[in-house]
TrEMBL record:
Coiled coil: none annotated. Residues 24-396 form the Beta-lactamase-related domain. This is Serine hydrolase. It holds the Pfam family Beta-lactamase. Keywords: Hydrolase. The keyword Plastid does not apply. InterPro entries: Beta-lactam-related (IPR001466), Beta-lactam/transpept-like (IPR012338), Diverse_Enzym_Activities (IPR050789). The keyword Chloroplast does not apply. GO terms for molecular function: hydrolase activity. It comes from Teichococcus deserti.
């Protein structure tokens, strides 16, 4: 990857240099194993810094070639795949998904009860494509530990990460369970994007992973991104950690034995990909370019604009989610696959209205600012993402370097 001088793209080199110092301090403290940061503006990478270790036990250095679990940073790519089919006229956003997935007809919504007997009422309408893309479908996640329905997910094997079943089978299990809210009425982070992956397969007639490789990853030149780690990538594959009781590192996924070493039975559109900083930068630049990269167009300009507009009735907080991960949901809306900055003052963080972003469970993150022609990527492996406020800190450091 070729770097340009910060001055050439309106960034202060001294201020941009604070990012490296900040990263080094996190690693030196023993709280993070290693991390990579990238800041690009006006189509050029002005900052790329890797520090620390990708694998502490083996002494493997963190580098730009390190392969990491990006988890929910898979979601924007899956959403892009669905929007490519939207551009082909295959469906409309307000279409019910029952047009393609009849198992979601006559859904019920949980309103009370106990784990053994959940009280439900009929859904007022079917789930739409827009509901899935915006996480207003009424679906949830089994790991939330927040209510009766996510307990049912665990009881019935609704797990798109490790299930020993087909994607269609897991979606079928999901459709048999109640929703946690009426479709379209509340923002709840969920397996919606995994259902989108299944919809991509049903609508296109291809397996979801094959569609994503052939129509998105290969055209973008994202050669290191897939649902499993190849033999050639194994020396570069990072370990995944959690914070220990003493504030250090506890290994939770060894790269020598990780499930990511073999192709999964279920390819999770919500969180199944591994990638590198260089690969994900290509996706970010595609979005900054409004759907085209190196002469290859995946989406039209107007579709990108629709995708990155706020589709909620207000911000995420107004739709029921006061916080997400380590960040407030005040002043943050949601588009078709991304969070969308509405009001930096309300969000209490530096930013620009219209900036769009998301992150992953292992504390990875990215944000794209069309007004500033800027993208930032943070890659590390610390689960969960709420462990440390590193995303917010990097956001402040990155924007502080903008001087032109």
């Amino acid at each position: 990857m070729i770097l340009t001088s910060p001055e050439a793209v309106g960034l202060c080199p001294q201020r941009l240099g604070r990012i490296a110092d900040w990263a080094e301090s996190w690693v030196a403290s023993g709280r993070l194993p290693g991390l990579t940061t990238l800041v690009a503006r006006r189509g050029q990478v002005a900052h790329l810094h890797s520090t620390g270790l990708a694998d502490v036990a083996r002494g493997t250095r963190m580098t730009p070639e390190t392969v990491l679990r990006i988890y929910s940073m898979t979601k924007p790519l899956t959403s892009l795949a669905l929007l490519m089919l939207y551009e082909e006229g295959r469906f409309q956003l307000d279409d019910a998904i029952t047009r393609f997935l009849p198992e979601f007809r006559d859904m019920r919504v949980a309103v009370g009860g106990a784990r053994g007997k959940v009280e439900t009422v009929p859904a007022i309408r079917d789930i739409t494509f827009r509901d899935l893309l915006t996480h207003t479908s009424g679906l949830t996640y089994g790991f939330m530990q927040a209510g009766l329905v996510d307990g049912l997910y665990r009881d019935h094997g609704v797990d798109f990460q490790t299930a020993e079943a087909s994607l269609a089978e897991v979606v079928g299990r999901l459709a048999a369970l109640p929703l946690i809210a009426q479709p379209g009425t509340a923002w709840n982070y969920s397996v919606s994007t995994d259902v989108i992956g299944h919809l991509v397969a049903v609508i296109s007639g291809q397996n979801f992973d094959a569609f994503l490789r052939e129509r998105v990853l290969r055209p973008l030149g994202m050669k290191e991104t897939d649902f499993h780690v190849t033999e050639a990538q194994r020396p570069h594959f990072a370990a995944n950690y959690a914070r220990s009781a003493e504030g250090g590192l506890t290994l939770i996924d060894d790269p020598a034995t990780s499930r990511f070493l073999t192709p999964p039975r279920v390819c999770s559109g919500g969180g199944g990909l591994v990638s590198t900083v260089g690969d994900y930068w290509r996706f970010c630049q595609l979005m900054l370019n409004r759907g085209v990269l190196d002469g290859t167009r995946l989406l039209g300009r107007k579709t990108v604009e629709l995708m990155t507009a706020n589709h909620l009735n207000g911000d995420m907080a107004a739709m029921g989610q006061a916080r997400w991960s380590e960040s407030t949901a005040e002043g943050i809306g949601f588009g078709l696959g991304f969070s969308v900055m509405l009001n930096p003052a309300r969000a209490q963080i530096t930013g620009t209205p219209g900036e769009f972003a998301w992150g992953g469970a292992a504390s990875t993150a990215f944000w794209i600012d069309p007004a500033e022609e800027m993208a930032v990527i943070l890659l590390t492996q610390m689960t969960p993402s709420s462990t440390y406020p590193i995303r917010r800190e990097l956001r402040v450091l990155s924007y502080a370097a903008v001087v032109d």
